[in-house]
Predict the structure.
Amino acid sequence: MPKHDNLRFDASSVRSFVVCANAGDDSENAFPTFEKAIEGIVAACSQDDAHEPVVERIEISVQESVSGSSKRKKPSRHFYYDTHLLGACGNGTERDPWPDITSSLNSMGEMYRQGELAAKPGDLIWLDRREVFTATEHEKKKQRSETIAKITFLMMSLSLVAPLVLILSYLLYKAMPALTMGFLTENPRDFMTAGGIWAPLIGTFFLVFISLMIVAPIGILAGVYLNEYARDNWLTRLINLAVVNLAGVPSIVHALFGVGAFVLFANLGESLIAASCTLAVMTLPVIITSTREALAAVPMSFREACWNMGASKWQTIRTIVLPNSISGILTGVILQVARAAGETAPILFTGAAFFMNVADEGWGYYFPYSLTDKVMALSMHLFTLMTQVNNAPEHLVYGTAVVLIGLVLAVNSFSIALRVYLRSRKKW
Amino acid sequence: MTLQTSQSEIASGGSKSSGGLSQLLNRISDKLEPVIEWTIWFCGWSSIIFVAAIFLFVAIEAGGFFEQVLDEETNKLEYRWKGFEPIKGFTFKEFFTSINWRPDRYDKPEYGILALLVGTGAVTIGSMILAVPLGLGAAVFISEFCTGRVKETLKIVIELLAAIPSIVWGFIGVVVLGPLIVSATHQLSHIIPGFQPAFVGVNVLNASIILALMSVPVIVSVGEDSLKAVPDSYREAALSLGASRWEIVYRVLFPAAKNGLLAAVLLGVGRAIGETMAVLLCTGHAVNIPTKLTDPARTLTATIASELGEAVRGGDHYRILFFIGVVLFAITFVVNLVADLVVKGIKGQDNA
C-alpha cells in the first residue's frame, strides 16, 4: 500500500471499474452489468488483501461515463468505508461509513436493486484510497466558501481602486490639449478663458509654504510634548481628545473660525496670512499625530542610555530622539503639504481671490502676493472655472484639475517613497 | 560650570569634529532648556486651545457680539464690543423644524434648516450604505487575505485615494458621474416601466457615491488597524479548531474588533458630514427634502460655503450661517467623541 504525504488524491491509489462496457471497450476492468462489476471488485480487492489488509479509508465514487476523455469528471455518488471502524454498520456516508469492502459492495448492490443507485452502461466505479488528511466533502465545501469570500473581498477592494484609475485616466485624456509647459508658466488671461495657471499655482505654493512655517514648529513641539513629557493623566487624555476632535472639525467650520479669529478679530482682513493661518490650524492635528508616531518608534533604550550619560531631558530629545525620528516627522509634514494644497473651503472666505492681476515678468512674477494681499489658489481656481466663469474652455478646466491632482499625488507619492526608503534603512 | 559643559559634550555625541560653533549652539540650547520646555508645554496644549477657540470664535460671530467699525481718528477698522441682540424672527423651534430656508427675503426672512439637516443626513446615510461594506471588505482583504507586495500596493492606493482634494471629487462628480447617472437612469426607465429617470446628474445619488469614495480611506485604514490589533493567538486558536479564514473573519475577528470597526464607521460618518466642496457641487443644491435617490438636495456645509460670501457681515443671515457652523461643530464633535470613546473601549478590553 503506497503511503502519501500529500493531501490530494493520488492516481496510484485509484482503481477504476467500468460497468456495462461497450463492445469496443477493451479495458480489463470492464464488466457487463453492475452486479458483475461488484463481483469483480470483490475479487480484485481480495487479491489485494492477500498481500496486505486494507486498513485505509476508501471512497467509492460512481461516475457517469466520459466519452473520449481520460479526465475524471465530478462523481455523481460517493460512498465510504473505513476498516478502522471495526464492527460499525453505517450507511455508507462520510460521517457513517461502512466497515469493509464486502459489506459496502453488498449494500451498493442492494441499493442498485432497489433503484436508489442508478448506474448506466459506461459508468465508472472508482475506488479511492484516501489518506487521513485528504479533503473531505465538508472541507471542500469550506474551501469553496473561503475562495468565494476571498474573491468577494478582492472585488470590494478593486471596486475602490478601479474607479480611481478609470477617472484619473479619463481626466488626463480630456486635459491633454492643455498640458503644455506654457500652461504652467502663463498667467490666466481674457477673464480666465485663456492662458495658463501660473498665478494660482504660485498662490497655492505661497499658502502651503506659509502655513507650513506656522504649523510645523507648533505641531512638532506638541508631538514632542505628548510623547516625551506628558504623563498618563486626565489632562493628557483631554489633549488627545482635542487632537482627535480638531481633526474631525469640518473644513467649512475651520473657514468660519478663520473669518472670526484671523480676518476679523486679529484684523488681518481677507489675506494670504489669514488663509495660511486657517490652513495651519486645520493641518495641526495630523502633524501632531504623525510626529508622535515617529517619536514613539524610537526605542526607549536609546533615551535610557542617554539619560544614564547624565543628559537632561531636553538634551536627550535634541540629540537622540529628534535625529532618530526626523525622517518620520518629515514624512508626516510632507503629507500635510499635500492636504493643505488641495483644500478649498478653509480659504474660501479667508483670503482666496477669484482673480488677481499678476505681473507677467520680473520680481512680481515670482513674488506676486504680499502677506496682506488676497491670493489665488489652484483649488479655488478650479472652483471658479467650474462655477463662476461661464465660457471657460473645457481643456482649461480639466487641465487645472489634472495639475491639482498631479501636484497632490506627486507630493504624496514622494512622502510614501521616502517612508518606504527610510523604513528599509532603519537600523533598529 | 564644568559639569554642565561636560554634560553638553556628552549629549551632543560626536560633535568633537564639528568645532566650536556647534558647541556654542549646544551650550546656548542647554541654557535655554527651561524656556524650551515651557514652549513645548504650551504647544502641547495648542490643540485644546484651538478646539476651544474654534467653538468660541464661531459662536461669537453667531451671537454678533462684536462689530467692525471704522475708527475715524486712525482711519483703521476696529473690532468693538457691541452686545447681544437676538436675530429678528428667529426661534429655536422654527430653526430645527421648519423646512423653509429663505434667509435673504427682505420682509420676513425664514430660518428653517430641517431640509438642510435632512439633506446632510440623506447624503451621509447614502454614502455610508456604499462605503461601510466596501471599506470594511477592503480592510478585511488587506488585513487577512493578502500579503507582501499586494498588501503594500493596496494600502498605498487607498492612501492616495484619501489625498485627492475634495474640490476635485466635486469636479469628478459633476463632469463624470453626473452625465453617467442621467444616461443610466434613462436607460433603466426604458427597461423598467414607471421608473423615473434623473433629469439632473447632480443629486443625492451622485453626492453619495462621491462621498463614499471620499470616506472609504478613513474606514479602510482605521478598520485595518483594528483588525491588526486582534492578537494572533485568536487566529491561531480558531485555525487549530479547523476554522477556515472566512470563518475566522466573521466568527472571531468581527466580534473581537467590533469596537474598532464601529469607530472606523463613525469616523467615516464624521468625514461625510463635514465634507463641503464636493457636496456643494454634487448635491444639486436645491432646498428640498429628497424623496428618492435622484432628487437634488442641499447640505449644511454647502449652504455656508455658498451663502457666506453674499451675506452682509454682521447681519442676520451672516449670523445664522455661523450658527449653522456651531451646529455642525457640535454634530461632528459628538460623532468624534463617541468614536474616541468606542476606541478607548477596545484598548481597555485588550489590557484586561
